[in-house]
Amino acid sequence: MVNGAADLHAAARIDAAIDRALEIAGHDGWEVEATYQATDSALTRFANSRIHQNVAEHDAALRLRVVRDGRTGVASTNRLDDDGVRSAAQRASAIAERAAPNPEAAGMARPQGSPSPTLGYEEATARADPGLRAAGARSVIAAADGAGLEASGAFTTEVATVAIGSSAGVRSHHTGTQAKLVTVMMGDDGA
Hints:
Blueprint: H1 4-25, E1 31-47, E2 50-68, E3 71-77, H2 82-98, H3 123-126, H4 130-146, E4 150-166, E5 171-186
Antiparallel strand pairs: 1-2, 1-4, 2-3, 4-5
Helix pairs in contact: 1-2
């Protein structure tokens, strides 16, 4: 989410995690790129024209890429504390040290501007709660009932954040939203 004080606090935490990852991984001349990806998704499922499940999930991970002398190593973690980041940095460095040099390897990207932080972001989707998804599911169920059919499906809302930082000076983040309502309606004959 990109609006409000809570969203600014979340963005500051993400930036701090990226900075901490660059600091931990950027030793002995390694170039470093840190990519943070997080998804908050929620789902309301219905079957036999009845709502039967509501779940929510948060997932976040950090991917580190280290490069030096044409050698590249990549490691990721979903442990975003210092120990988790340090472990990923050590794994990425160990992989790079064992990798054969690639004289044609692409280096780190240089700063070039950023995407709009609100492109693809809809506040109503980000704030969707189980009641809103249930109301959408009930609308589908009512339409099915009106046609003498049974409805099954799911209504999902999602907020996804991607942030990237590098020792070459790249700093960017973007948050987007997505909403999906998928349904199948069947008659008594199975059609």
